[in-house]
Amino acid sequence: MKKNNNPDNQKDPKKENLDPFRDDPTEENEADVYNIHDQIVSREKGEPDEGFEPTPWWVWTISVLVLFVMGFYLGKFSGTFGTVAHEVEMPLRVAEERIEREVRGDQLYAGFCQPCHGSDGMGTPGRYPPLVGSRWVTEDAETPALIVLFGLEGPIEVLGQTYNEQMDPFGHRLNDREAAAVVNYIRTSWGNDAPEIEAERVAELRETYERRERWTARELQARRDNE
Ligand code: HEC
Question: Where are the domains of the chain?
Fold first, then answer.
């Protein structure tokens, strides 16, 4: 191919006069077979190179940048491609909204306290003390809140009757708003008429006495006397 790119080759008058298809196997013509071949081949066009040019440098640069940015984005937001992100975050938010709307002391009482203290708050004689008219319920609001959060055990006198039983803590089952709602419910029901406690105060009590054992009536009395 190099040969026929040489312009001198093609302008050679001797070659221009040659008839390449002449059937004349003389010495001279045989010797010229390379020239003839070159002439034939030179009539063909070069290989087309459109569409086969080397990729320009900026295409590579942009590709690498885009890959880098996408990789960064995936690394940051893919959450290891787990489904956890969708399962945990969304229901939690919905659950929080529901609690915001639906914290109702009467329902919480029915679910958590009624089995022992009764729907009328009268308890069970000799076993579960009454909440109606009990000074443990109606005097300061912190005492019933502390009982609900951390439980109660040992002897306690309620309306002239002594009980010596055990009540489990509810602090891990009721959040601050719920504990406040149930305490406010027993303080304002069945003829009880005491001021309410704020959820914020319940939160403070929870933090102050974190990981506490059950209260005894004596401890609660001493605490109240000190206030
Ligand atoms: C499994 C039974 C049981 C459940 C459920 C229960 N309690 Fe009690 N509660 C008791 C017992 C027993 C005592 C007495 C403990 C003692 O003898 O020291 C008591 C005592 C109390 C007292 C102090 C005494 C009184 O009668 O004033 C309060 C206040 C109280 N409970 C509130 C609640 C509230 C509010 C709930 C629901 C969040 C609740 N209890 C759930 C069994 C229960």
Answer: 1-74, 105-226
Buried b or exposed e, range 198-215, using 16+ CB within 10 angstroms: ebebbeebbeeeeebeeb
Atom of ligand 1 nearest to the CA of 165: 17
Task: Give yes or no for residue 112 CB within 6 A of ligand 1.
Answer: yes
137: number of Cβ within 10 Å? 24
Distance (angstroms) between ligand 1 centre and the Cα of 103 equals: 20
Range list of β-strands (E), 79-223: 152-158, 161-167, 215-216
Residue holding tokens 């009764």? 118
The model's pTM is 0.64
* Domain 105-226 CATH class label: mainly alpha
- The pLDDT tens digits of the residues spanning 11-64 come to 454 555 556 565 655 555 565 788 888 888 777 677 777 778 888 899 999 999
